[in-house]
Write a structure and sequence with these properties.
Blueprint: E1 4-8, H1 16-23, E2 29-36, E3 43-51, H2 54-63, E4 68-69, E5 72-73, E6 75-78, H3 85-94, E7 105-109, H4 117-124, E8 130-134, E9 147-152, H5 155-165, E10 169-170, E11 173-174, E12 176-180, H6 200-203
Antiparallel strand pairs: 1-3, 1-6, 2-3, 4-5, 7-9, 7-12, 8-9, 10-11
Protein name: RNA-binding domain-containing protein
Organism: Meira miltonrushii
InterPro entries: Nucleotide-bd_a/b_plait_sf, RBD_domain_sf, RRM_dom, SLIRP/GR-RBP-like
Amino acid sequence: ELKTVWVGQLSWNVDDAWLKSEFEEFGEVSSARVVMDRESGKSRGFGYVDFVNAADAKKASEDAQGKEVDGRALKVDLQKPRAPREQSENRARKFNDQRSEPSPVLFMGGLAWSLTEDDIWNAFGEHGEVTRVTLPKDPESGRPKGFGYVEYSEQASADKAIEALSGADLGGRPIRLDYAPPRNNDGGSPGGRGGFGGGRGGGRGGGGRGGGRGGGR
């Protein structure tokens, strides 16, 4: 049963308590959390609301769509569960994944071109505090290269993510995960699979995220 809804296009002014209060009209809310940017301390423009009952979550995903909060029309969707651990491990074995030495940085392979950094933050943020996402693009075509990196603030979060998401369907394709070498002091990766890329500004074009997902979902 799906009891959690994803809420996008949140105003930067909305905090956990405000988010919870906006959804209590649909049923009993057990918790609500706005995802924050670790570096700036600002809202990243989306969050999650957990309901006690699945029926209330479904109702909220339908009735709160487009609801105006602090001058912005919300985007709401049911948060689908990730693949169970056993299923993920079976998929990982199927793809012959051989894991490297543990690191808080994960390499992501087999990524669908349609996936955005928002999608990665959304999926991996469920397992811990993500500090950086990089999706390299071909300099000539501008197309994604089909791989990327996600960095967590803690090793334990990376461990949870690699167990939960290895082989999981993301953007219509099974994602392949492995540990990647941590960045060195220059912001790059000491060898490995081609480096982790630039910092948050560089990885996102330097423009930040603005007000969240915008119309991307």
